């Protein structure tokens, strides 16, 4: 096939797809700009801002590197650009300058709902602007219209053995969506670098739209009867995901999913899933391959799988204390855990030095909707006792709870008790944070990431040389 014919075919297929999306979203159109149109307007300003910053301050030293950091996982090194969110050790996460309470207040909500819509957060992370309700409805409708999975992806999920971890199935399915990549086809046809972001945007929306169907198909196959409901074109993203999982009739659960997807979405760019997605994307891999790589990182027990481990620990604690949730009983159990050389799951964080605001948001949800749930009461008592115990123990820099110590409790209450699936929900949410940055990277022409590495022998030579000066 000639490059010219391939390019014409690509444009033709893209036009057909855009026409179908326009038909599906027309009922929500109000003459306002779509997300893609608004982002296109913002690109020149952002490119100029970066150029000027590099011109004026390109040689400015913004940090220092110690040998401990090099051997300690590059902890705290300022070396990444991430527009969507910034994590302060004391203040916590801010999404485009807004705290979690801010976004709960400011972002559009579903009719009759109280929690922000994750589609609205996606708009905020990409543009830095709060969308209108009409703009969010249009985006919701577009995501619903693009949600259908290719037949080969459905068959791939259905053929996966039930004992294969849901996160492995999730990553495999997202990788298989590479067949749908407009970016990969455009790159092969020789499209201009200035248009990379355009096809990356299309891939990202396509991918985001399909994640609920992927997640639900895995859930229904592994834990239920294998039957997946259809996407409702009139529902928002969170409501559709809840419905696909079989919990759509419970409006409290729908609200929980909206909150869950929003607060788990982004936590600056240095965490494993975000950094991996960015790193692989910097090689101009498609959003499908980039996110799949990030999901493989998220599956690790030191990252996204931690919420599953927390729940397993809570169940063991509950059995061991035999229903005695008193502070004295919990304190003794925590000391026994620490003295045995084990950690307290769900406490501590690589960056934070206070209670994780995402934990607080989930705690407030629980206080509102499930204050008498026994597992929540247990978590609450641990919250009262653990920080003091960990502080006295002296080996934890941050004795406060993180997001993982609470999320599983909420899902358990509403009946989604299969904890091995929890990281898949985390993965759906994380896509809302990493895909906007991938689009921005392509829009501003971010280069491939390639830091320098040394061997231990070379570091010995380096530090000895520096110490002799």
UniProtKB/TrEMBL annotation:
InterPro entries listed in its UniProt record: Citrate_synth-like_lrg_a-sub (IPR016142), Citrate_synth-like_sm_a-sub (IPR016143), Citrate_synthase (IPR002020), Citrate_synthase_AS (IPR019810), Citrate_synthase_euk (IPR010109), Citrate_synthase_sf (IPR036969)
Sorted UniProt keywords: Acyltransferase, Transferase
Keyword Transferase among record annotations: yes
Gene: CIT1
Family in the record: Belongs to the citrate synthase family.
Protein name: Citrate synthase
Cited Pfam families: Citrate_synt
Entry GO terms, CC: mitochondrial matrix
GO MF assignments: acyltransferase activity, acyl groups converted into alkyl on transfer
